[in-house]
Amino acid sequence: MELFRIDFLVIRVVDLIDIGIVAFVLYRLYASMRGTIAAQIFVGLALIIGAGVVSQFLEMKLLSWVLQTVSAIWVIALIILFQPELRRILLILGRQGFTMSIPEYDIEHVVTEIVQAAKELSERRFGGLIVVTRATDLSFAVETGVRVGASLSKELLMTIFNPKSPLHDGAVIVDGERIESARVILPFSTVMKTPDQQLGTRHRAGLGVSEHADVFVVIVSEETGFISYAMEGNLYYNKSAEELKSVLRRTLTRDRDQQDLPLWRRLGSILPGFRLKK
Description:
By secondary structure, this protein is of the alpha+beta class. It folds into two domains: 2-96, no CATH class; 107-277, YojJ-like (1 (3-Layer(aba) Sandwich). The protein has helices at residues 13-33, 37-57, 61-81, 83-96, 107-124, 139-142, 154-161, 201-212, 241-257, 263-266, and strands at 2-6, 9-12, 128-133, 146-151, 171-175, 178-184, 215-220, 227-231, 234-239, 276-277. An eight-stranded mixed β-sheet has the order 4-6-5-3-7-8-9-10, with helices on both faces. The chain has a two-stranded antiparallel ribbon with strand order 1-2. α2 (37-57) packs antiparallel against α3 and α5 packs parallel to α7.
């Protein structure tokens, strides 16, 4: 059934449905990869393909040939170099389908317990690394640690990060109001040094997982007692407990509220890039 015509272009109902389905599938793929390196490759490939379509429409033959060649190379590179990310995306889609939902939980309780634990860890000079999940599935990281499966509390976090505890090395994964795993091994960031300080293993691990997944990471330095946090590939170094509380509450609340936003609003996500915030 024809809706309207633009010059020689005929727009039908089925065309709008087709465009809507493709847009939704692409959005779900990007949402599943958001916060990962594969997301940046995905957007870059989409831009090249889009430029190729425009150049073909304008009959720019040389540019069309170059872009089509580059697109083919990028697809092969995407499959070979980012096989783990693509496999994880397929696993997520297999479990969740094309719907996205964040389970309901008491955000204020989560923020309070984590911030109080970070503050006490800082005062006692205990090192700490707490990864709070957001939209990304972290089952790939949980498998490297020790399953805990307990309710989140400041006391349990203090017990885990006590230097005498066998679980104090590595990270703790927090999902909602539960501590899923401890002693988790995280990927290190390639950033080793900033203009102001050399990054230790906890900061590189916290920054590294924030580059690969959509998470909020709380880092407490054993050497200085400084509280830092990382998100979206950015490291925010030496922050107060009050600022940590404000940012963590705002981040988790925004994640929950975004579920109710229209699709076009959620498509405007900003890709991560490293920078140190004072």
